[in-house]
Amino acid sequence: MASSESPAAPTEDVSAETVPTFSDLGLGDAVLKALKDVGYETPSAIQAQTIPPLLGGRDVLGVAQTGTGKTAAFALPILDQLDPGQKTPQALVLAPTRELALQVCEAFEKYASHLRGVHVLPVYGGQGYGTQLSALRRGVHIVVGTPGRILDHLDKGTLDLSALRFLVLDEADEMLKMGFAEDVDTILAETPAEKQIALFSATMPAQIRRISQQHLRDPEEITVKGKTTTSANITQRYLMVSYPQKVDALTRILEVENFEGMIVFVRTKSETETLAEKLRARGYTAAAISGDVAQAQRERTVDQLKSGKLDILVATDVAARGLDVDRITHVVNYDIPIDTESYVHRVGRTGRAGRSGAAISFVTPRERRLLGAIEKATRQPLTEMRIPSVEDVNVTRLSRFDDAITVALADQEKLGQYRDIIAHYVEHHDVVEADVAAALAIVSQGDTPLLLEEEIRPPRRERPEREQGARDERRPRSGAPLSPYRIEVGKRQRVEPRQIVGALANEGGLSRQDFGRIDIRPDFSIVELPADLPRETLDRLRDTRIGGKPIELRPDPRPFRSTRGPRDDRDGRGGPRGDRGDRPARKPRS
Question: Family per UniProt (predicted)?
Answer without folding.
Answer: Belongs to the DEAD box helicase family. DeaD/CsdA subfamily.
